[in-house]
Amino acid sequence: MSVDDLLVEDIGAIRVLKLNRPHRLNAFDASMSDHLIDALTGASRDDSVRAVVITGCGRGFCSGLDLSRFTDGSLFPSTRHARLDDLEWVGRLIECVVYNDKPVIAAINGAAAGAGLSLALACDFRYAAQTATLTTGYIRRALSPDAGMTYLLPRIVGHAAATDLILTGRDVTADEAFRIGLVHQVVAPEQLEESALELAERLAAGPPIATTLSKRLLVSTYEVSLVQQLKAELRDLKECLATEDVREGITAMMEKRVPKFQGK
Question: Where does the signal sequence lie (predicted)?
Fold first, then answer.
């Protein structure tokens, strides 16, 4: 399942995706992004996958777009299809994470910058190693943000903090990232993968249908009115009530045991 720039491993019901361009701190080019999009799309559609972990090989999580490809013109493909695509591979990737039907965890093992930080922001959970450094980075290269940065960051840390991080482009330590709500947990570097997998296992043990519907509702809340959201919640609740998992959850509660959800 793996390719040169993306390593894919299934651990039980968890799909682990490792960005594998360590010589460039896992900076994105079109090829790696396409492979990651394919892997995320496959995970979203695969009933055997219940959670996804994204991390990086080597010292970095993802240092953003590989700007070395800018000089040779290969950063963005010059095909007619690409020229007419108003999302391009950068936007498509963020879509695949945000709208993925499985919970996605970013295990930030090192530098996360620019589009690499956006990738982490698009995930449902962000765990960071104590040694990780995060930065929006764009302003340092005379660039405006992309990859959903101006949409995701203010919703996570608030408008004032997002303005600070985007317009200064300063480095943020893992401890500060935790303090401002940018990451959910900070752990020792040697414990990062284990901690992310523990969370993934907890999510994977949950009811798959309710998990997917809950994630979809959380995403849609920024796009609809209160009444529309209330109707969507009721619709999805009725969908859950018709599942075998609900009966299993209630029975397990009454029998004082751990439920075993089957996604039915």
Answer: none
